[in-house]
Amino acid sequence: MKQDKEKPETSIPAEEQKTQVSESAKTKEKAPTTEKQKAQPETPKPAPQASLKEVIAKQAIEEEESGSASFTLRKILGGDILTAQIIRKQIWLFMLIVFFIIIYISNRYSIQKDLIELDQLQKELQDTKYRALSTSSQITEKSRESNVLNMLKHSKDSTLHIATQPPYIINVPEE
């Protein structure tokens, strides 16, 4: 370690930097550990030939596996569950479920709207039937023979009068 501090900083190839880092990690491992250091879990050290992307990907996968193994209410409500690998793999299924729920709700509202309109039309039809029935009964009452005769008697300006002779049938011969 003293040599690392005494060396002037120059451009060192990436492979040498990795080996220097791994060597310094080895010397730290050999140092006596305190109780605080014993309590902290050791993180796995990447192989000296692994690239930075591989190390980050591996660490992310390891963190997800340990985090997704136990789902707590706090993780679910906090939104941490949405970052789990299981959820990310099934995102299209969740999108499909949400789509069907939206279709279900919109269909329900349109059916309710149609039922309300149907109920209003039935009330209007019943009202129209009652008006037609009352109008028909009024016409029937006014067209009775006795009422027609009374109207003719009371109306002096009409040229119509009651027949004195019974009606008879005229037969026309066919040619």
Structure description:
With 175 residues, the chain is mostly helical. Among the domains are: 51-89; 103-149. 67% of the residues lie in helices and 0% in strands. The termini are far apart. The model is unreliable at 1-11 (pLDDT under 50). Keywords: Membrane, Transmembrane, Transmembrane helix. InterPro entries: FtsL-like. Residues 1-51 are annotated as: Disordered.
In short:
Pfam families: FtsL_2. The chain is built from eight helices and no strands.
* Shape field: rod-shaped
Distance between the termini: 140 Å
What structural class do helix, strand and pairing data support?
Answer: mainly alpha
**Strand element count:** 0
Output the helix-strand order: HHHHHHHH
Q: What is the overall pLDDT average?
A: 76
- Characterize the main sheet: none
Number of helices: 8
Low-confidence stretches: 1-11
Helix content: 55-70%
Region (Disordered): 1-51
Keywords: Membrane, Transmembrane, Transmembrane helix
Transmembrane segments: 91-111
Protein name: FtsL-like putative cell division protein
